[in-house]
Amino acid sequence: MNFKVKSLLLALLCACSQGPGSQSPDGGSQTQNPGPTPGPIDGGSGADLDPSELDPVSHGGTITFESIGAPGWYPSRRDPETGPCDAYQSSGCCLSKHTIESNTLTPWDEDLIVTLRGPMKVKQFAVYQPAGNPKGPWNLVSSWDDRSPKSPQGLHFEGNSTEEKGFDGIIGTECLVDVSTSEDFACGPGSLPYCPPQGSGKKKTWGWSGSKLFVMLATMPHASSLGHACSQGSGGNWFDAPWVGLSHGELVRAGAFGGCHCYAKEPDKWYLGDGCGQFNVFEVVNDNNDFKNLDVFSTNMFGYAGYVGEGPCGSKCKVGSLGSEADLIDKSTSTEAARGAVASPTRGPGAALRRPVSGYRYFLILLDVPSRTVQLAIIHPLSVPASVGALLPGLPAQMEASTVEAVRTLRLPR
Questions:
Q1: Are 30 and 110 in contact (CB under 8 A)?
Q2: Are the beta carbons of 105 and 208 closer than 8 angstroms?
Q3: pTM of the prediction?
């Protein structure tokens, strides 16, 4: 299966997101309902890593996407009883045109939910957002730690039996876990954007709107060494292929792969992904063809504004010839990149980040609305740059805007 098509199908199987409402405080697009703003929570809990969980120190890597965002529209689901159905209507499916006028990180400034696919082991997961003024401090608004797995703060997990058992940090190959805020979203008649009524005990939640910084401490060992599989064999296109994705909350709350969604402007042409789309932040591609490379991430975002980023390395990235210190690979030479990669809607990064299979890394995902920047970083716990030392490893309850700026301008390996 083509890697784009596979990614699109995954988004629908995970059931992705967005919800239209008022102007976001940090310059986001007009949305009908941006959802509640999570409050600050306690922080300051540095990672507790055993030496056996650490591999040799690596140089880290960054990919920076600049000038992100575009005006346009995508179809937003409506209650068939209320409409309007001016984008698409068929067999109870009512989609309305959600028009976006801003170009400030749109539509990724809207309500987003994270999806994690294994094999993956997570030690910490944290989310920061501006406390008010985007030029002021940022608060820790959501967090989870494997030292107290039953006590998430401002987080909700769904999928892979986490609703009943809680999240223990281990996600087996082909297993999927959606991570969102703990704020309830009331599905049912009149909900906006619309999502079907939930059964007894079911819970749907908001994602994070506006500027946000996701921090995850994780490793992604090969499926053969992790267990906990959600598959029966190695023939599947997602086998041994971890993924960190961002999807609109609307799509996630809509439920499983169905015939009415914001993902494409015509639901029966979902493979086009020209609606609210999806952001494949860190995606290992396993299509059982020439695109397959189980050691390297591809990174791309797509939707109504088009395709941004680059596809998988395939055989172009020969990881076996690299030293363990390399986290960012120059695609043209299969060597360690000279410095952090920079991309835009008209230029791919030309580099790919390496999957950590034997040790932990910090994964950073910054979506900064005012600067129209998306910053991705992988950082070894024993090689945290001094410029972001106020954030890692301590994960404080609050950090200054200067630290966020340091994350945004970070260029690794050099």
A1: no
A2: no
A3: 0.91
